[in-house]
Each structure stands twice: as structure tokens, then as C-alpha cells.
Amino acid sequence: MPVRLLHMSDIHFGGEDAPALAAATAFARDARFDLLVVTGDLTQFGHHDEFAAARRWLAQMPGPQLATPGNHDTPYLGLAERVAAPFGRYARSVGPPDDAGFAGDALAVQTINSARGWQIRLNWSKGQVSQRQARNAARRFEAAAPTALRVLACHHPLVEAAGGPMTARVRGGRFAAKRLVAAGVDMVMTGHLHAPFVQPLPFGDGMTYAVGAGTLSLRERGAPPGFNVIETLGEELSVTAMAWDGRALAVERTWLVPLRPRAGERA
């Protein structure tokens, strides 16, 4: 059964690109899709009013929806809260910050929270995935329907994107990527870089793809504001990066990559 996903990320309410976001919202309302996936940084500084704006936006978007937080979704100025309850505001406004899922015969999606309120390193905004998180997600995928497209969603790319505008430096990222590849995951959807990309993870059969979405904020990093439309087309996966050119949405680029055969499709 064909699957169609909308992949949006890094809206950064408080610093959103209002025309680009309005166009993306209108596109989503008119489109047919199985799931909207938002891979973090819904807010700019984790302020209450920014989360209120994110909550209103998600309420007007069609469903079903699945979201995961980013490093900007912790209270930037509330140091005590960032240490003690970094994702409390996110949980109250958006939903569970970790281990959210969507399951069906054709699609199995699982989130893990790669963001942290603080870390013992200079740049706490970089990602981290624990072995427990990776193993729990892998177990859920191993229990998924054999016909399902398996998709992991988190904010930070688990393995550095070649030619990316910045680094993610995810602690535990390579362990998680290897474990997910072994579990038959087809795609790892992320944000953080503010630029779209599709690359195979360098493990296993090379048919688990890292898929990054652009931003819908003013924080551009060499790519226009945009989002992804992801579709299964028979034995292939299509990823189309939609971009806002200041007047309208247009196709920026499309990637077409082979999919790992579903269990029911093997000879």
C-alpha cells in the first residue's frame, strides 16, 4: 500500500517565516497524506507564548500528527527548569517528548528525543541518543507489521550529513543508527540542519536513509524555507523538497532511492 508523509521541521515560532509557514499550512490542508511528522524546534527560545503559537498551529493542521522536540524546545533562559524539567513546556503544549508512535499495516513510525536540556560539553544544543532509547525503538520496529514502512523521527541527524551547513555531533548516534539498521528501519527523519538532504546510512545494506527537512523559519542556512513530501512509489522511496521562493511553493529537488523489499514482497 502506498504511503505519503509530510515532513516539517524547525518552525522556530518566535522567529518563523510567516509567509512560508502560511503556504506550508495551506499545502498540508489541501494534500492527502497518511501522517504529518514534525522533527523538532517548534519554538525559538522555549517561551510560553511560542509554545502557545505552536499548539495553535498544530491544532489547525490536519491529522494524524507526530512530533518530537528539538534543542530549542527547552526554556532558553529558565536554567533551573531546563535542568530539572527541560521538556515540561513541550509536553504540556505538544505531547510526549519521547517514545511517541504511529502504527499500522503500511506504516510504523517511532520518535526518540535526541535533544537535551543540558550536557557536560560546551555546546549543549548538540544531540544525544542513549543506548536505552535506541534499543527500545528497535524493539518496537522489530514488532511492527512485516509490510510496514519503518520510520524513526528525531531532531538531530544520527550520522553527520555530508556537506551539511552545520554539525549535529550526536553522542550515541552511530550506535543508534547501527541498531536501527539491524531492525530494518527504512528511514530516519530529522531536522536541525535547516537544509533538506537524503543520504544512506553507512551501515548494513545501505538501504536505511537519513532524510533531513529544511526550516520554516527565518533562520536559513543556505537553503530556502521549506519542507518534504515523502512517498513510496512501488519499490522506491521519493523525497521531494518543497521550497518557498518568496511568492509561492515550488519543487526544489526530488530524490528517488530504492526501498528494501517488504517481507510479503520477497520471492
Sequence of strands across the biggest β-sheet: 3-2-1-10-11-12
CATH superfamily: Metallo-dependent phosphatases
Tally of domains? 1
* H/E element sequence: EHEHEHHEEHEHEEEEEE
- CATH topology category name: Purple Acid Phosphatase, chain A, domain 2
Please tell me about this protein's structure.
With 267 residues, this protein is of the alpha/beta class. The chain has a single domain (4-265), classed as Purple Acid Phosphatase, chain A, domain 2 (4-Layer Sandwich), CATH 3.60.21. Helices cover 22% and strands 25% of the residues. It has 6 helices and 12 strands. It has helices spanning 18-30, 48-60, 79-84, 88-93, 131-142, 173-182, and strands at residues 4-8, 35-39, 65-68, 101-103, 107-111, 149-153, 187-190, 197-200, 209-212, 226-233, 236-244, 249-258. It has a 6-stranded mixed beta sheet. A 6-stranded mixed beta sheet has the order 4-5-6-7-9-8, covered by helices on one side. The mean pLDDT is 95.
